[in-house]
Specification:
single chain, about 280 residues, four-stranded antiparallel β-sheet, globular
Length: about 280
């Protein structure tokens, strides 16, 4: 079940890079990005700013979100060049959850360094343009897209709500987001999420030691229990995209176990979607 035993303060941004048969993930508070092939050695890159999420451009390049910018990162030599500033004039915020969309864009959420109320936003980068989509979010999470590419999901973990918003042909929101999944009555905290090839929505639930699947209508289907308490972000990976990788965190735990903060891996009975690619002109 343990894919990588290195403990992250705040593991996030799990991403399967099919060109490299490797998992990429982040330790936001540790300002590190990792990559590891199953059975291989872990590679690590350190950054000056908090880093939290990435989108695949091609085999060798990623778009990486930090607390100050979106940058083009080269996996071959570790070089990086800024593409566009991301709330660089706001010392209160950093980047958090993010994912590439079916139309070649990259969605990225921000949040307060101390989860200040309403300090975060959802942004979209597309063909050189960065546009704020939704402001006044406390903890941005669960950015993901169904196979048909007609809508997007995102969450405010602090409110326990996942929203759904329709998209136009170019991937921009085509209306106001609507509440789709409200977990507040159950006391569950939706964190990172990914959608499988059948349209099932898988979300890590912070503090609940599990990843839960909901169908396309938002009905609970099943949950996978995990040994880490603060699970944070799932990703489908492996050659057939039938393994579920899940990051976790030691943040907020006075007595972390050896499993807390690790990356876990379990078999799934449904395949995931390949990650979309970000177009960088």
């Amino acid at each position: 079940m343990i894919f990588d035993a290195g403990q992250c303060q705040l593991g996030e941004g799990a991403l399967w890079h099919s060109d490299r048969n490797a998992l990429i993930w982040f330790d936001i508070l540790g300002r590190r990005m990792f990559m590891r092939e199953p059975g291989g050695e872990r590679r690590e890159w350190r950054f000056e700013d908090h880093v939290s999420a990435a989108g695949i451009v091609d085999r060798d390049r990623l778009i990486v979100a930090s607390s100050r910018a979106l940058s083009l990162f080269d996996l071959r030599d570790g070089s990086s060049r800024p593409l566009v500033a991301l709330e660089a004039d706001n010392p209160v915020t950093r980047s958090n959850d993010g994912r590439a969309d079916p139309q070649g864009g990259f969605w990225i959420g921000t949040m307060g360094l101390n989860a200040e109320d309403g300090a975060g936003s959802i942004w979209r980068y597309h063909r050189g343009e960065l546009r704020r989509l939704f402001p006044a979010i406390t903890i941005t999470n669960a950015i993901c897209f169904p196979p048909d590419g007609r809508h997007a999901h995102f969450a405010d973990t602090a409110r326990s709500i996942v929203w759904k918003v329709a998209l136009d042909a170019d991937g921009w929101p085509a209306g106001d987001p609507q509440p789709w999944l409200d977990l507040s009555a159950e006391g569950l905290n939706p964190d990172g999420a990914v959608i499988d090839a059948q349209g099932g929505f898988w979300t890590a639930q912070w503090g609940a030691s599990r990843v839960a699947r909901y169908d396309a209508e938002g009905r609970f289907d099943r949950a996978i229990d995990l040994p880490a308490r603060h699970v944070s972000c799932p990703a489908f990976g492996g050659p057939e995209l039938t393994r579920l990788f899940v990051t976790s965190a030691t943040q907020g735990l006075d007595d972390p176990t050896p499993e807390d903060g690790c990356v876990m891996s379990v078999p799934a009975d449904v395949a995931g979607q390949p990650e979309y690619r970000v177009r960088v002109d």
